Amino acid sequence: MLVRRQLMLTVMAGAVGLMTSPVFAQEAAQPADGALPEVEVIQKKAPAAAKKKAAPAPKAASPAPQPPPAYDYVDAAPPAARPGERGSDGRVVDNQSSISPVDPSRGILPEDTQNFAGSATHVTSEQISEIRPKDNAELLSRVPGVTFVQDDGMGRHINIGVRGSPNRRARKVLVMEDGFPINFATYLDPSTHYTPPVHRVESIEVMRGPIVAYGPLTNHGVVNFRNLNPFGANETVITAAIGHTKGADYDVNNYRHVHTRQNFGNVGVVASYTGGDAGGAWSNEESHYNDFYGALAWRGFNQDLTISGGYHRQRDHYDESNFTGTEEDFYRYGRQKPNRPGTGFGLARDTRGDQTNLNRYLADLYRIQGVHNWYIDTETTITTRLYYSDHSRDRPHSRRLGPINAPADGAIRSRNRDYTFWGVESRFEKTNIPLFAGVTFDVQTGIRYEEQKFENCNTSGRRGEYPGSSFTGHCLPSGPNNLREDTQLSVFEADAFAAFLQVPVHLTNNLTVTPGVRFENYDITGERIFNAGGFLNPPTRVDSDHNHVLPSVGFAWETMPRSTVYGGYHQGITPMVVRNPSLAPNSFPLPDEKGDNFEIGFRSTAVRGLTLDFAYFHSKIDNYQVKAPVSDPVFNNSVYGIVDEVEINGFEIYTRLDSQPYTGGSFNVFGEATFTYADNEIKRGTDTVGNGATLNTVDVSGNKVPEVPRHFANLTLGVEEKGLWSASITGTYIGEFFTDARNTHAWTCVDSDFGHPVPCAPAGGGVVTKVDGQWLLSARADYQVPNTGVTLFVSGQNLTDEFYIADTSDGAKPGVGRTLWAGFTWKFDN
User: Fold this and answer.
1) Is the peptide bond before 467 cis (omega within 30 degrees of 0)?
2) Which of 123, 229, 306, 570 counts the highest number of beta carbons within 10 A?
3) Measured CA angle at 117 (ends 111, 120), to 5 deg
4) Residues 816, 52: Cα–Cα separation, whole Å
């Protein structure tokens, strides 16, 4: 630990030195007329086989070299950007398309991914406007390899999977915002209940192929949300909408958004606010959030500095106490949750439906990041960043008949969790290095130090208290203050050091091979401060040390103009969720979930108007952690187990066809299709079942991994008059999946005292673990009022109002009912 902290101080000192020395050593060039200054020296990445050149001397004008002519049926490649040129969004355009930009805050993918050495997808700002999604899950449904399950009205509690990973809370996917992780704590509990509001997202990037520059959580994929860049065009945007969700008690849904982006010489500013309120899947479920974001940036002669951050506040009437009655009663009473006769919710069967009105999800997230880029010369860049996150979430829920029905005994139990982490990272890139015979290569490397802390407290308020009545559900030892149930506090910490190196070798103008390696070293400690029954003597403390060397290799071969074969291999790791309430010493050290991941694919935009991308993928992952469909009955924590080995085989395809490139003009008919098939099978593993008194081990080899739909499809047909109006309709298919490793098909009963399936009894509640496949229909239309900057829009999800089971984690939960929206966007430039 001492060695790691000394190394951390060294990294920090170097990072701070890199950030400050060029900033104070140079004076930024000021524009003469108030326009944005030209950035004269920015990272230059020449075509693959070009040799390094000396600084050009003045010479007579000569004709510019012309690209080879395109065939009649082929669209020419987009023009290459000049070194240092910025795109319309204000980000530096990277001419090297085989690897990620060296600065993660400006994106994890190059602007042009045609020759990226791996599978990758951009969702652009134009596509976001076309889809007009109400949340990020709807937006990501168009990305090949991505699946989702929707279980709340605003999509705040994100459930996305990538290439066969479980959807639940995106626990096996690295989710980032401007290159900054937004998982709770990537080494301790990588669950995700937050993504940035879609209205301030400028684009989304999804990397699924060989991953070496980011980690951990890299067996399946990486999702990165890119916020508004301060150096984009000046604009102010106001958006507002109202709507309604059928079956929800909340009368009028609404969301509102305003942002402004302004440039003042060499300084850029972004300020954004987004808020929303909506009904959910159950009648008494509600989502409420307010989000504030800001960014301040400066750029000079050969450097730039950006500081960004925000605050996100979430106050939901939301819980994970879902239906555990009979299948007949589930469909009989529909989305009604309170006062459902003769039924239970969650594992506490004695919690009556009306008491779920008191259940909440309360979250506060503070984030800040500082990024400095130093363009040393035309081919060398150093980027350094510091970041910090504090995410607290509290989930109070009713227990023991609830504090209203039984004030003498009922209480509110709460799961208080606080996640903090901070880190420092520095990356270096050198491009266009001659090797031999016209072959060149680039070098990109980086180091990162990060500390994480997770405080997990399960506690109760006093008897008869509930939120809104001076609730005292604080993290205190059990016994005093007339607390109804025992409490528990555990603290986990992680110190992590990571480094990577990747070297794209440009063998020809059209063929690049990129070997790489990533090193991950992290230590986890866990300590139980107090537990059921009071303080422990002595307290329990455990630790787990991990070291991984993760190789990778990728390639991209443009076999024809704008047609590329790509593929590769990489090893990835997925740290375990550490919430074990007992902190049993025999559960530490934690096993390593480590995988070998392969892919081969093809992408093309060669045929005019047609985009095509498909890939086959295969993964073999050891020590795969899976979540059970029930929670432990004492502290209501999720239960996790491990199977020895899983194997994933699948393919993904995305295609889009537009008529406008053939017909000309502004009228366009388009069709878009995305399909993902992921066969995620447990090759070796066991599961423990029983009635609490007798537990048996069952072989689950050959079963499907829980929470993974085998099929997922998203099909869209649309028509538009570009710049005036558009309309489209989408069918989304979410395939069947199970939520337990035993792949239970029938409804079974659950004993609330032990949380294990037992034979049905008259007093038993029921839970189903198989979720059937479901088609959902959505549509949207908009009209741009000429010469006003105003766009009017309408949209709808689940238009046929299907009542179906969306998930069966902690009981059966229905999908969100038919939801309709109408609103406007007003955009004006300053």
Assistant:
1) no
2) 229
3) 55
4) 58
pLDDT for residue 43 is more than 50: no
Residue 404, SS3?
A: helix
Would you give the distance in Å from CA 475 to the centre of its chain?
30
The pairs formed by 754-758 with CB atoms below 8 angstroms and a separation of 24 or more are 754/633, 754/690, 754/691, 754/692, 755/347, 755/630, 755/631, 755/632, 755/633, 755/639, 755/692, 756/630, 756/688, 756/689, 756/690, 756/691, 756/692, 756/695, 757/689, 758/690, 758/691, 758/692
- Where residue 339 falls among pLDDT bands split at 50, 70, 90? low
CA dihedral 609, 142, 124, 513 (to 10 degrees): -80
Measure CA 568 to chain center: 23
Q: Note whether 577 and 171 are within 8 A (CB).
A: yes
Count of CB atoms situated within 10 Å of the CB of 261: 25
Cα separation, 361 vs 797, in Å, equals 24
d(CA 83, CA 94): 8
What are the beta bridge partners of residue 278? Answer: 287
User: CA 785 from chain center: how many Å?
Assistant: 35
What are the residue ranges of helices labelled H in 285-374? 327-333
Strand order in the sheet with 180-181: 120-123, 201-207, 222-227, 174-177, 180-181
Alpha-helical runs (H) found in 103-167: 125-131, 136-140
454 backbone dihedrals φ, ψ, rounded to 5°? -130, 115
Residue 264 CA to residue 28 CA, distance in Å, equals 13
CA atoms of 783 and 335, how far apart (whole Å): 34
Retrieve residue 230's tokens: 């301060």
Indicate whether 255 pLDDT > 60.
yes
Give the separation between CA 676 and CA 167, rounded to whole angstroms.
Answer: 14
Mean pLDDT (the chain, rounded)? 82
Higher pLDDT, 342 or 119: 119
Describe the chain by its helix, strand, coil percentages, rounded to 5: 10, 50, 40
Beta strands 765-767; 757-758: pairing state: unpaired
pLDDT of 754 > 60? The answer is no
Q: Is the Cβ–Cβ distance between 41 and 375 less than 8 Å?
A: yes
What would the pLDDT profile of 644-698 be if each residue is shown by its tens digit? Answer: 999 999 999 999 999 999 999 999 999 999 999 999 999 999 987 654 445 678 8
Is the confidence at residue 228, as pLDDT, over 90? yes
Instruction: Label residues 629-660 b or e (16+ Cβ within 10 Å = b).
Output: bbbbbebbbbbebbbebbbbebbbbbbbbbeb
Q: Cβ atoms within 10 A of the Cβ of 423, count?
A: 21
Residue 772, Cα to own-chain centre: how many angstroms? 25
Q: Which two tokens stand for residue 427?
A: 């990356």
Give 665's strand partners. Answer: none
DSSP 312-331: EEEEEB--S--B-S-HHHHH
Higher pLDDT, 57 or 433: 433
In this prediction, residue 641 carries a pLDDT of: 83
Asked whether 608 and 660 are in contact (CB, 8 A), the reply is no
- Predicted pLDDT at 396: 84
Q: Kindly tell me if the per-residue pLDDT of 525 is higher than 60.
A: yes
Distance CA 154, CA 136 (A): 9
Phi-psi sector, 464: left (phi>0), alpha (psi -120 to 50), beta: left
* Nearest in space to 15 (alpha carbons), one of 496, 384, 429, 445: 384
Q: Which of 360 and 487 is assigned the larger pLDDT?
A: 360
CB 472 within 8 A of CB 462: yes
Higher pLDDT, 516 or 352: 516
